[in-house]
Amino acid sequence: MADDSGSHEGGGGDDDVREQDMFLPITSITRIMKKAVPANAKITKDAKEIMQYCVSEFIFFVTSEAREKSKKEERKRINVDDLLWSVDTAGFEYVELLRICLQKYRETGVCDFYAFIYLSVYYFVR
Question: Which CDD domains match (predicted)?
């Protein structure tokens, strides 16, 4: 991956953070990606790496925006509502879907990937 030094400024002051420590593990990304494609499909190393970068940047962005909101409200903790606000403010259309999934998780204590996919299809098709 290309060096993007400085893109995560203000993230805690660790100047010696290795680039690879700023990304989710590639094996986790690959596992998620494989659930979305047919069993016989292949995913290139470049595709995995770009997804790793994009997912990590998305998490950084959403968390940074949520942190700014909590700071403006003079709170030290980011909560789920801050994160959902951040996703909504960024223009992503699935905030309501995330709220539904969060409610189901709170009721059952289980995060069901397949139920999330089902809700996603239902939400976007209706």
Answer: HFD_NFYB
